[in-house]
Amino acid sequence: MYNDMSQKSTSGTKLIATNKNARRYYEILDTVEAGIALMGSEVKSLRESKVSFKDGYVRIDANGAWLVGVHIAPYEFATHFGHEPERPRQLLLHRREIDSLAAKVEQKGLSLVPTKMYFKRGKVKVEIALGKGKKTFDRRDDIKQRDIARDTARELTRYK
Question: What does the UniProt entry say about where the protein is found (predicted)?
Fold first, then answer.
């Protein structure tokens, strides 16, 4: 009855995973979308959403930008070639984008952290955020503001 095109999302993106700790520990200033060079077994594992951003970050060197510390679980049905779960993976960015990010990281003391991984038109993309590390008191203030907003919303719904 329905064709396959009507059931797909209009944007063509499918979220794989998000890094919840990125917004908790960093104040996000800017985001960049990057492609990522993967092996076939890694893509299969990502289709099953078996990825962890736990200690992930982006390192920039003379050869380009690298995603380090992101754990992609081994694909259990891989027959010939598996992959190393925490190997550095090259990010696919233009040289001018890499140079711009490197200048911001060096100059202002910012960090590059992965925030999201998703499929976009069949390709795996990573959203990289340029963030400034939060201090402990900043995190406490965020928690306090979130609690206040939740309590006021609860009170407003009670009186409606």
Answer: Cytoplasm
For residue 143, being part of any structural domain is answered with: no
pLDDT, tens digit (0-9, with 9 covering 90-100), for 99-138 = 999 999 998 879 999 999 999 999 999 999 999 988 877 7
* Coil vs helix vs strand at 25: helix
The single-letter DSSP state of residue 86 is T
Token output for 107 = 């100059």
Helical ranges in the chain per DSSP H? 4-7, 20-25, 40-47, 95-108, 136-158
**Into how many domains does the chain fold?**
1
Contact 107, 16 (CB under 8 A): no
CATH code for the domain of 67: 2.40.280.10
Q: What is the pTM of this model?
A: 0.76
What is the domain range of residue 104? 9-133
Three-state secondary-structure class, residue 58:
strand
Q: If you search the block for the tokens 């992965």, which residue do you land on?
A: 114
What is the token pair recorded at 113? 């952290």
Question: Which string of b and e fits 128-156 if b means at least 16 CB within 10 Å?
Answer: bbbbeebeeeeeeeeeeeeeeeeeeeeee
Determine the Cα–Cα distance for residues 117 and 66; give it in Å rounded to an integer.
15
